[in-house]
Specification:
Two copies of one chain form a homodimer. Chain A is of the alpha/beta class and about 290 residues long. Chain A is built from twelve helices and nine strands. In chain A, the strands form two sheets. The first copy, chain A, has a six-stranded parallel β-sheet, with helices on one face. At the A-B interface, helix 7, helix 8, helix 9, helix 10 and helix 11 of A face helix 7, helix 8, helix 9, helix 10 and helix 11 of B.
Amino acid sequence: MRLEKIVVVGVGLIGGSFALALKKAGLVGEVAGIGRSRATLDEAMRLGIIDRIGAFDAATLGGADLVLLATPVGQMPLLMQTMAPHLGPQTTITDGGSTKGDVEAAVRQFLPAHLSRFVPAHPIAGAENSGAGAAKADLYVDRKVVLTPLPECDADAIERVRTAWSACGATVHEMTPSRHDQVFAAVSHLPHLLSFALVHDLAQRENREEFFRFAASGFRDFTRIAASHPEMWRDICIANKSALLSELEQYQRQLEELRNALLVGDAVALEAVFAEARTVRRAWAEGKLS
Amino acid sequence: MRLEKIVVVGVGLIGGSFALALKKAGLVGEVAGIGRSRATLDEAMRLGIIDRIGAFDAATLGGADLVLLATPVGQMPLLMQTMAPHLGPQTTITDGGSTKGDVEAAVRQFLPAHLSRFVPAHPIAGAENSGAGAAKADLYVDRKVVLTPLPECDADAIERVRTAWSACGATVHEMTPSRHDQVFAAVSHLPHLLSFALVHDLAQRENREEFFRFAASGFRDFTRIAASHPEMWRDICIANKSALLSELEQYQRQLEELRNALLVGDAVALEAVFAEARTVRRAWAEGKLS
């Protein structure tokens, strides 16, 4: 497979790394970049991530083999609407959003003529840094990418997206959008919410400096994801509201159980929870659970 | 200052590293080790952490310059009771427990004749690994140690403990026990509880393998402390129950606010919480808060 022309909408960490990886794999001809910020696009040109700066017009989108939407998910409906008139029938479209039910809904609403060519995808490759300057060709090596194809999707469109991500070094999985959103609410979205909540809670204290002065390595790891991008995570929470609420409520019940055990000094119950958590966490880290 | 004879009760990561660091600093003569497990004590001998295996008797404790209790905090009351008859008046006693209000209470109950010589301390140096085999001479370099001396404490006992920890490379702070317990409930004990809770919650799911299969680097960092020692953390939670409950309840209120924001789709409120958390987390990581 060869992609003569691809278009990356949003040339940040995700989109930029995708372009660099495909270039390195020798799979791609020209890469056009579209984005909100001219400075970012200029930087992407300078870094060799994109070959030219494009726009939502026929010149850029016409004849493209693949378009990747790599913006925060909240922007995608408007972008789909804007690009719809310029998309040709041979163009496969995909995205890099962290939620998939909302992407499916937006595709059905704003790209109804392209349902068979749109393959929603989620590359599992976050990083503390974002932006074109953080993009790198090996970001996806040994990472997972989840495709959530619609029933209407053409097999060759799925194959094109699958081949592109495999060429980036990723292993490709398939799930339904709703299962995807449930799993990621639990293992990604909820932990981010919990970590943001802890730091925010401490930030409100009088003498907060004294609290933070004694925060050590456990706190550092627990709160690393609280330095994540607020706009991106706002969009993810809103987009995956239903599954995230369900996970949050289950977690709140779990905390209430722990609070009750603490209140009555039930050391046995606490140790049982901690011991099972440790066993499962260690099995996961050793690759014995997945 | 020179310590001709010290006794380490519990020769694991904390006690073993203390002994190794003092030896490296040339501050100590003989180190005797006391512990539950003969195998651990033999290993500590083999590794040169201790010079002889002792017991709760006059031969071991009599004439000691310093005794360090480095066991889980739940064991300390019984250990204090057991050692009390054999402690001489010149011996300074300290501990390495993660909670301090309970240690003070135990000292008042079980070592009333030694109030002026007991200096409670908390070295802030956790690690994923535990046991004598994980001990190392540089564990405390650039770490913090918090002393929570009682009002009855002799200045020279405090000075002896302070000098010992400084010789290990640590910076020594002083706080009241109650302030210590409040601060560490917030920045250490609560995050551990939250991390254990998340992993335990996921471990109960049907098809939990599918959840864990897609857990990535954010999850890994958030849950690293869920692999901590269950018995140790059970003891810490029980020992610091009051402050931990207060922190947990405040956190539960914070989660309820986030849940309400999610329920009504209040993107502005969510982003405000996330943005403040990110700002403060970054300032902390850059050393601009502490």
